[in-house]
Amino acid sequence: MISPRENNQTEITEFILLGIEGPQAVKIFLYFVFLILYIMTLCGNLVIIGLILESQHLRSPLYFFLSNLALSDILLSTSVVPTLLCALLKGRVTMTITGCVVQFLASGLPSSAECNLLTVMSYDRYLAVCNPLHYNRIMNNNLCTNLISCSWLVSFLFCLTDIIEILHMEFCRSNVIDYVYCDVAPLLEISCKNSSILQLTILVFSIPGILLLFVLIILSYVNISIAVLRIPSNIGRQKAFSTCSSHLTVVCVYFGILIAKYTVPSKGRSLTMNKAITLLYTALTPLINPVIYSLRNRDIRAAANKLISVRK
Predict the structure, then answer these.
(1) Cα–Cα dist 67/290, whole Å
(2) Quick one: which of 50, 155, 216, 245 has the most CB atoms within 10 Å?
(3) Which residue windows are transmembrane per the record (predicted)?
């Protein structure tokens, strides 16, 4: 919806989200693809959370962090995919400015929290491998709770900064958002107000928020690798590596896509490429995490097998 203004411009009060454009047959095919991915994402992450809550063997700090990671995956996928499914069926989705801001918060909060959680989990693995004798004393319940609380709180503050800037933007060029969901980049393109402050804010926060956390994780695993290589027995080295391989795989996949999405200038990429990266990030990554942990983690597999045998 567009309302007249005194300066003969028009003030936008609603957005039209296009999602993915193309032939109707392609849209229907993509609809079922993303619907299946979304259902699998919900089921996979809910199974991870359920196993951690049910199994006494999965009550360690690592799996407490993993349950929060699964929750962030559910929230991220749910904030984007249902809207995308509606756009694929209807051709477009109408959304108010308030609804757009809510979707940005709903997608940005778990996205930022996942970066923090992956960093916390790398610190947990660092303590477990490099300082095993003092692990239980350091990684106690209070520290675990504080780390999780800080991860979500910092993520909220990060999103709140962008939301405050977005609410001060004026939209008068167009009300059509040719994107998968309400993100900052497409909103900047249709803004008729100088958005240099918001662009600078995104740049300042994205570098420490993504690259710095990724560097901290890499440094943790460098120290872990050094400690593991000092273990005399092959069995001990394999056991130590197996406890970290799942997390490291998730880190590489998630941060690789995230760095491509937020730190590489979007102007140098086509709109199709931007949408493809976004879909990988919001629809596929939340599914990859439970798949990797269920296939590569012995404790998760053992808890699942035990639960299935009890149900029988």
Answers:
(1) 10
(2) 155
(3) 28-53, 65-89, 143-164, 197-219, 240-264, 276-295
Rounded to an integer, what distance in angstroms lies between the CA atom of residue 16 and that of residue 19?
A: 9
The pLDDT tens digits of the residues spanning 99-146 come to: 888 998 999 899 889 989 999 999 998 898 888 888 889 999 999 999
> CA angle at residue 185 from 217 to 164, to 5 degrees?
85
Among all chains, which residue has been given the structure tokens 């609603």?
14
Other Cβ atoms less than 10 A from the Cβ of 8: the count is 6
Where are the chain's structural domains?
Answer: 2-311
Q: Strand ranges (DSSP E) for 13-116?
A: 14-17, 93-96
Q: Whole-model pTM above 0.90? A: no
Share of the chain above pLDDT 90, in %: 22
Token readout for 312 is: 């029988």
Q: How far is CA 274 from the centre of its chain?
A: 16
Q: Which residues contact 80 (CB under 8 A, 6 or more apart)?
A: 103, 107, 180, 181, 282, 283
CA atoms of 50 and 70, how far apart (whole Å): 10
Give the Cα separation of 183 and 181 in Å (integer): 6
Specify which residues 12 forms β-bridges with.
Answer: 2
Specify the DSSP class assigned to residue 190.
T
User: Topology of 2-311 in CATH?
Assistant: Rhopdopsin 7-helix transmembrane proteins (1.20.1070)
How many whole angstroms separate alpha carbon 207 and alpha carbon 212?
7
pLDDT digits (tens, 9 = 90+) for 148-185: 999 999 999 888 887 887 787 777 767 888 888 888 87
Q: Are strands 176-177 and 14-17 parallel, antiparallel or unpaired?
A: parallel
Structure tokens at 71: 């929750």
Tens-digit pLDDT profile for residues 190-231: 777 666 666 676 666 666 667 788 888 889 888 888 888 887
CA distance 163 to 158: 9
